[in-house]
Specification:
The protein is α+β, with helices and mostly antiparallel strands. The protein is built from three helices and seven strands.
Length: 174
């Protein structure tokens, strides 16, 4: 097996490590930096710019040799729980400018269950959301309604059960 051109991510050893309990939120991805003048196409400035988005690890061969001029490519370690910005403001002494960022092949990430591999829309672990809605009248609160948004695939009978359960629970507080 040849790993010479790849990257292996390691982390600190922990007692009783169970890989099934680790929630991986870090991913390696290539980014493209568009609109960047050629004088910035060196390792140090590119790493400083890419550092605004994550931890820069490497430049691709065309970027380091300056043989391709449409965009610079940087391999980046990103935390998927953070917002992926599409622009970076570069501040200089005399002027400021923006650089557009394009992420290549970011893995799908669910912000609900914090698991890499699927989006929130396809999350099978998503818990139904119970949101009380308070309707004020004159100076008192008249009633509390409960909105239950069941996860996809839940039967109508179970939804009615949930509604009645939460309604009875809330009535004891009113």
């Amino acid at each position: 097996m040849d790993l010479s051109s790849g990257f292996l991510r390691t982390f600190a050893w922990a007692a009783d490590f169970n890989p099934h309990e680790v929630q991986q939120t870090i991913a390696l991805t290539w980014i493209r930096l568009h609109g960047l003048a050629r004088e910035y196409w060196c390792k140090k400035p590119l790493f400083e710019i890419a550092g605004a988005l994550g931890t820069p690890l490497a430049l691709d061969e065309a970027t380091s040799k300056r043989t391709f001029s449409h965009y610079a490519r940087v391999l980046l370690e990103v935390d998927l729980t953070l917002e992926m910005r599409e622009r970076i403001l570069i501040e200089r002494k005399v002027f400021d400018f923006y650089v557009d960022v394009e992420f290549e092949k970011l893995p799908p990430f669910c912000n609900s269950c914090q698991i890499v591999g699927h989006s929130v829309k396809n999350c099978k672990y998503q818990i139904s959301k119970v949101q009380p809605i308070i309707k004020p009248t004159a100076s008192t609160i008249e009633k509390v309604d409960v909105v239950i948004i069941p996860p996809t695939g839940v039967t109508p009978q179970f939804t009615i059960f949930l509604f009645n359960y939460f309604r009875l629970s809330l009535e004891s507080f009113i």
